[in-house]
Amino acid sequence: MFRQRMNADEARELFLKAFAPLSDTENLPIADCDGRIIAKNITAGIDVPHYRRAAMDGFAVRACDTLGAGGNSPVVLKLAMGIEKGTCVRVHTGSPIPEGADAVVMLEDAVLRGESVEIFTQLHPGKNVGETGEDIRKGEVILKEGKKLRPCDIAVLAALGIRDIAVFRKPLVAVIPTGEELVSRENMALREGEVYETNGLMAALYIRKWGGAPRLLDIVEDDPEKIKDAISSNLDADMIITSGGTSVGKRDYVPGVVGSMGTLLVHGVGISPGKPTALGIINGKPVVCMPGYPVAGIVALYFFARAALWKLGHIPDEHDRKVRAVLSGKIPGRTGYKTFARVKLENGRAVPLAVSGAGILSSVSKADGFVIIPENVEGYDKGEEVEVVLIE
Fold it and tell me: pLDDT digit string (tens) for 266-294?
């Protein structure tokens, strides 16, 4: 029998408190760090820019030499190799500002006539000049521990001449599919009572998408000793995800095995679909036991496995992408359960798809997202505006 059914949010909170984030780090070239999590603050070792530079193509000048310049009364300066009173120097964007100059006249505001330049605008000191350290100051903390790196962040590292940095190691997640009815996708044909294994593949791909390193194992039979062996041989992983064998049938051994090897925190959660989800800890490592029905499995992945992975890997909690839409039909809730109803988006409407049936895998593929109905809400009526959590 299930343990007492636990509220979904309480189950997740209990689970996440039961293990610690990883402390392991690795040094990687910055080109390999897109999407990785910084393991310690990064401080600038140089100024950027490290010299005064022209911000425009034009002529470097002393600003005081442009006093009185205007559209009908240009100031005329002599084109030279250095700056002194009454001279200017040709510069390009990014080139050093000559000693003595403090401004740059844009090409559009000047006319070159032989060895003379007519200036048609009055400048103030610093105009069109990039000062030393204007972008980044030496000693400044530019990226903090725990930040998920983006290509633009990596470009900043490159601008500082940084070649490699310390990042947190990706959590290794062992994915163990179980079930007598499962067969490998390499099989050419299915017999009655057989289905291709899909949950393990789906879990492994989501783990990779969410920032982990999946290890997908071969199918394990519904045998408690074989399930125990599979878990025992993968305790080098940082997290274990099992699929199937979590209900209360004669062949549902997984929760019992987890409890015998460690602590079974939860078995039976107030989510629909996904009630048979089990959560445990073995050797300090989180274990998520997905139900065998695919839709229930994906809900367990989203609600529990993703949160556990992000805690392990110091990955910032990336809020779900959500949109507002009007329901084209009624969707029922289930008292005491957080209900995940599949919907398809069509021209601003949310169209319910197979609102019941945790085994209808294609309904997730056809869906654009879930409408999550709270435990104390009986459902939503046609015409109501709802929030749709988009499926990645």
Answer: 999 999 999 999 999 999 999 999 998 88
Containing structural domain, residue 76: 53-130
Beta strands in 309-361 (DSSP E): 322-327, 331-332, 338-346, 349-352
DSSP reduced 3-state for 323: strand
Among candidates 306, 206, 163, 298, which has minimal Cα distance to 243?
298
207/291 same-domain check = yes
Which residue has 């300090």 as its token pair? 284
Residue 274 lies in a domain: yes
Q: Is 317 contained in some domain? A: no
Domain shared by 39 and 77, yes or no: no
369-391 b/e with 16+ CB inside 10 Å = b? Answer: bbbbbebeeebbeeeeebebbeb
Residues 152 and 142: their CA atoms lie apart, in Å, by 12
Are 222 and 178 within 8 A, CB to CB? yes
Is the distance from CB of 202 to CB of 196 less than 8 angstroms? no
Taking every pair of Cα atoms in the chain, the longest distance, rounded to a whole number of angstroms, is 96
Which residues contact residue 224 at a Cβ distance below 8 angstroms, ignoring those fewer than 6 apart?
253, 256, 257
**Pairing, β 141-143 against β 42-43:** antiparallel
Question: Do 256 and 352 sit in the same domain of this protein?
Answer: no
pLDDT tens track for 292-324: 888 899 999 999 999 999 999 999 988 889 999
> What pTM was estimated for this model as a whole?
0.86
Domain total for the chain?
4
**Kindly report the CA angle at 391 between 384 and 237, in degrees rounded to 5?**
140
Residue 3 inside a domain? The answer is: no
Residue 34 and residue 159 share a domain: yes
The DSSP 8-state label assigned to residue 71 in this structure reads S
**1, part of any domain:** no
CA distance 378 to 209: 34
Q: 168, 189, 224: which is the final residue of a domain?
A: 168
Structure tokens given for 379: 């459902």
